[in-house]
Amino acid sequence: MEALYLLIPLSVVVVFIALWVYFTASDGGQFDDLVGPGLRVLQDDDTPPQPAPGEPHP
């Protein structure tokens, strides 16, 4: 029974920390575009990569 006196306040603190992390990430724009990166992977890009500056052209 004495363990509950420690575990209940500790769990409340952990929940508040998790909420703070979530809302900080949300305010920082972490969840703005969830679809874009997945669609960029599927785009067909057949153009050859550009050579780095100073490298000869093939």
TrEMBL record:
Keywords: Membrane, Transmembrane, Transmembrane helix. It comes from Janthinobacterium lividum. The gene is ccoS. Residues 38-58 are annotated as: Disordered. Residues 48-58 have a biased composition (Pro residues). It holds the Pfam family FixS. InterPro entries: Cyt_oxidase_maturation_cbb3. The keyword Magnesium does not apply. The keyword Transmembrane helix applies. This is Cbb3-type cytochrome oxidase assembly protein CcoS.
